[in-house]
Amino acid sequence: MNEAVSKLKPEGVWKEFQGIMGVPRPSKREEKMVAYLEKWAKDHKVEYKKEPCGNIIMSVPATTGMEDRQTVILQAHMDMVCEKNSDKVHDFDKDPIEAVLKGEWLHANGTTLGADDGIGVAAALAVIADKNVKHGPLECIFTVDEETGLTGAQKLDPKDFTGRILLNLDSEDEGEIFIGCAGGMDTAAKIFYKLENVPEDYVPYDVKIGGLKGGHSGDDINKNLANANKLLARLLWQATNEFDLRIYDIQGGNLRNAIAREATAVVFIPKDCAQKFEAFVNTMEKNFKNEYHVADPGITVKAAKSETTADVVIDEMTQFDLLNGILTCPHGVIEWSQTIPNFVETSTNLASVKKKEGYFLVYTSQRSSIESAKEYAAAMVEACFNLANAEVRHTDGYPGWTPNPDSEICAIAEKAYKKRFGKDPKVKAIHAGLECGLIGDKIAGMDMISFGPTLRGVHSPDERIEIATVQKFWDLLCDILLEIPKK
Q1: Helix %, strand %, coil % for the chain, to 5?
Q2: Confidence (pTM)
């Protein structure tokens, strides 16, 4: 085992997590993780089924004396967000995650850690493997592609389950039990371009926005974090007006569910404006640092003469449409809940801007705990890009999870938490999307909660897990399983 992990407690959970970190498992490319779980089940003589979409379901009999308890579903997703720092050499399809211990937290070396939701998978496997954990019948489902499409939850077969109590092991705040989540959908805009020759006496520059924290587009959307796509659009829009800047390329952000941390552009500037442009970029860096000096103080804005061999730029009308569309596209909190204090009801994330062959693709994601508000947020984004002469499409999206204040499993979890730790947990809804919404929509009568250890920086290379909270997560999970009602 990695020395950073081998001595951590609880040993069983960290042992399983160490094994998981060695398996590449990008969203939509989980074949190696599926094979790993199949082998794990065979090695531990656990009955399992592989659904056509790739989900693995392990069926575990009750321990002695617990045969009369209701069946519990333990649920976690096997895929991970694959983000790395620009200077980090790492192939997520081949390389294991390198764990780094920093004080009370476990990080990865320049990449996402994959504790979202590798730690949930590890906890479920540890329950199965640990003969000292008492539990009734279990159905452990490990879903594919949660991060980029909720595909596993969408395609699971309700006939594969008998349990109606579900413990989702995919939350990121120890001491909090979640009983509801937002629904979501994506909106993508294509802005088609033509190419023109670079104007005479223009010189190329590389522009880069970096140093941003990034973060989860649900959990972190209310933290006033900077969005690299928005900052780059502001800079280019103003530079177009001041220097007649022309754009060749823009690449910003990566994942639909992550706030953009980096964005780059290749641009051309009149040769006689080069020094003024460099001074302008320095001023923009100072402005951005001032605006985000609390929430995102590490912002860097750099411009350097480019070595590009490009001799073309996108046409002026497309540049006008693209920059105006990105600049006016909403990003962040749209509405706060009127019933839950300090809870984001509706938001949108300007996730990525990518130049493709013949068009720019702008990808955004909307979330809301109210279906009509989610659709309104998507319509708002569509309207911006309609005005920018874009081709706009929406995904079907996924439903939210309506809180059930009378949940029996929530009451059991609350009682267990207070008994174990001497204080009440917080019972909340979460603005992020959880698979519970889809699962509850597909399987009638499901009583569900979500909980987990404390994670921070999720969906970014700053992802980390607070080590001490994993023990508390494990203890609570075992206590809940011990208190499951009889059939």
Answers
A1: 30, 30, 40
A2: 0.80
